[in-house]
Amino acid sequence: MNAPEPETDASEIRCSVLCIEDEPLDQLLVEAQLAHFPNIVLLKASRGKEGIQIALTERPDLILLDMHLPDMGGLEVVRALNTQISEGLYRVILLTGDSFSIDIVKAMSLGAHEYWLKPLKFETLRNDLPRVVRAARTDRLRSRSR
C-alpha cells in the first residue's frame, strides 16, 4: 500500500497549461481555479486548430482539452499532436461532461493521459495537478535524454 503523497504548496507548482475549451463559462472556471497556483502560466484557445497551433509554438507542459470543440473534436486534436505527445513533450488531460465514451478510449490510446469530468472541480486540480506536473517533467526529461 502506497503512502499518501504530501500536500503540495500551490506556489511550488511551476508549469505552463494550455486550456483548449470553447465554452466561455468552463474556460473562466479553469482560469479562476488555476489562479490559486501563482506560478502557472495559462494559455487559452477556444478552437481545436487554434489550440494545436499554440501547442506547437508554445510547447506547454500540460494541455487541458475539451472533447467537444466547434471545429474539431478532442480526439482529432490528440491525433494531430500524437507525435509530440508520444515524444513526451506534453501531458494531455481530456475535459469532458461524458462519464466515459469510445472517443475517450481512442484519445487515451493515442496518448492522452487521463480525463477529468466537467465541470472541473478545484479539488481535482488541488489533488491531481501536482502529480500530473511531476509526470510531465519526468516525460520531458526522458524526451531530452533520447
Topology:
Blueprint: E1 15-20, H1 24-34, E2 40-45, H2 48-58, E3 62-66, H3 74-80, H4 82-86, E4 91-96, H5 102-109, E5 114-117, H6 122-144
Parallel strand pairs: 1-2, 1-3, 3-4, 4-5
How would you portray this structure in words?
The protein has 146 residues and is α/β, with parallel strands linked by helices. It is 45% helix and 18% strand. The protein contains 6 helices and 5 strands; from the N terminus they run βαβαβααβαβα. The protein has helices at 24-34, 48-58, 74-80, 82-86, 102-109, 122-144; strands at 15-20, 40-45, 62-66, 91-96, 114-117. It has a 5-stranded parallel sheet with strand order 2-1-3-4-5, sandwiched between helices. Helix 2 (48-58) runs parallel beside helix 3. The chain is globular, with a radius of gyration of 14 Å. The model is unreliable at 1-6 (pLDDT under 50).
Describe, in short, the structure shown.
Helix content is 45%, strand content 18%. It is α/β, with parallel strands linked by helices. The model is unreliable at 1-6 (pLDDT under 50).
Number of DSSP E strands: 5
Tell me the Rg in angstroms: 14 Å
Sequence of secondary-structure elements: EHEHEHHEHEH
Query: What structural class do you assign from the helix and strand content?
Result: alpha/beta
Give the averaged pLDDT, no decimals: 91
What percent of the residues sit in helical stretches (DSSP H or I)? 40-55%
Uncertain segments: 1-6
Question: How are the strands ordered across the major sheet?
Answer: 2-1-3-4-5
Key structural traits:
single chain; 45% helix; 6 helices; alpha/beta; five-stranded parallel sheet; 5 strands
